[in-house]
Amino acid sequence: MSILKEGVPVGLCCDHAGFELKSMIIGWLEANNIAWQDFGTYSTESCDYPDFAHPCAEAVESGKCYPGIAICGSGNGIGMTMNKHQGIRAAHCWLPELARLAREHNDANVLVLPARFIEPSVALECVEVFLNTGFEGGRHTRRVEKIPVH
């Protein structure tokens, strides 16, 4: 079950460490006819991940993009930044099984990838699984509803 919404692009953001992986993901999205919007960065020049994470998170929250994919060296910084936003449930995944569970059990709306710790082929598997896994609901709905949104 795809989580893509017709006419709504996937939001992408990264820092310098994630730029090459983000470029590969863009290629995969294009090959699969999936619309995307890139919030930067646009090179491997050193930069600060919050400068790109905040606009991407705002776009996912507002519905301008859905879902999001965020990438930095470890995945930690960009994921922490994304999760500061009220409507974001960013999941740090380095295996396809984690991406599946993030969607099924947590209704994650942003996939976070650790560019320096994941093989590109595994990252692309994570993207495919994340985009094609629905939220299971049921007992998980109660749990997700207990995540505060202020």
- Percent helix range: 40-55%
The DSSP helix count reads: 6
Major beta sheet, strand line-up? 2-1-3-5-4
Overall residue-averaged pLDDT value = 96
Main sheet overview: 5 strands, parallel
Structural class: alpha/beta
Low-pLDDT parts are: none
* Rg: 14 Å
Number of strands: 5
Order of helices and strands: EHEHEHEHEHH
* Shape by Cα distribution: globular
- Strand percentage: 5-15%
Distance between the termini: 30 Å
Outline the fold blueprint.
Layout: E1 10-14, H1 19-31, E2 36-38, H2 50-62, E3 68-72, H3 76-82, E4 90-92, H4 96-106, E5 110-114, H5 120-131, H6 139-145
Parallel strand pairs: 1-2, 1-3, 3-5, 4-5
Name the features.
alpha/beta; 14% strand; single chain; globular; 5-stranded parallel β-sheet; 150 residues
Q: Brief description of this entry?
A:
The protein has helices spanning 19-31, 50-62, 76-82, 96-106, 120-131, 139-145, and strands at 10-14, 36-38, 68-72, 90-92, 110-114.
